[in-house]
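Long-time lurker, first post. I've been practising inverse folding by hand and with some scripts of my own, and I keep getting stuck on stretches where the structure tokens seem ambiguous. Below is the full token string for one chain I'm working on. Before anyone asks, I'm not after the true native sequence, just a reasonable design that respects the backbone. If someone could post their per-position residues I'd love to compare against what I wrote down in my notebook.
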């Protein structure tokens, strides 16, 4: 299964989400390929934010080799599931994907923990290190829920009702 994590810059939140979910999937023996992208293009080719790298490393996950890239409409075909860090990211990607948008594959990351509550992973970009630790914990819990939900049965949709 191929899973994409999407935020705005692809340097703070989604690189953490990629690293965390890939690590959990590997440890669970799941043959998942996890990637990440940003709706913005400012950080294409850049390594993750130093504090994302640091907090991942403190938790035993190496994300230093990741490179930022921009979300593209092709991603709607390439990936089985696409998780967005906040509603703006989802709305922007929907607009970028145009006719290629597939609502059944797309959802907010935190819907896996709090279904229907439309909660966002807060952007830690403008704050200090503590925000990155909080984001790590939140994403880690959401990824546990994803492993639990999709790891057993491999369903092909996030939103079966849309
Ligand atoms: P991210 O955080 O979406 O979690 O990667 C941001 C990183 C960079 C910018 C905004 C958000 N930026 O405006 O450059």
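-- Answer (accepted) --
I ran through it position by position. Result:
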């Amino acid at each position: 299964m191929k899973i994409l994590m999407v935020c705005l810059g692809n340097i703070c939140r989604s690189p953490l989400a990629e690293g965390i979910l890939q690590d959990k999937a590997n440890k669970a023996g799941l043959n998942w390929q996890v990637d990440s992208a940003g709706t913005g293009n400012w950080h294409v080719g850049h390594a993750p934010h130093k504090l994302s790298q640091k907090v991942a490393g403190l938790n035993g996950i190496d994300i230093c080799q990741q490179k930022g890239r921009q979300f593209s409409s092709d991603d709607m075909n390439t990936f089985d599931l696409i998780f967005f860090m906040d509603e703006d990211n989802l709305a922007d990607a929907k607009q970028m994907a145009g006719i290629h948008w597939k609502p059944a594959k797309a959802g907010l990351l935190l819907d896996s923990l709090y279904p229907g509550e439309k909660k966002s992973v807060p952007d830690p970009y403008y704050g200090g290190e503590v925000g990155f630790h909080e984001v790590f914990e939140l994403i880690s819990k959401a990824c546990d829920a994803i492993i639990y939900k999709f790891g057993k049965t491999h369903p092909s949709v996030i939103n079966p009702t849309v």
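A couple of notes from the structure itself: Residues 7-13, 38, 42, 123, 125 surround 4-nitrophenyl phosphate (CB under 6 Å). The first strand starts at residue 2 and ends at 7. Happy to go over any region you disagree with.
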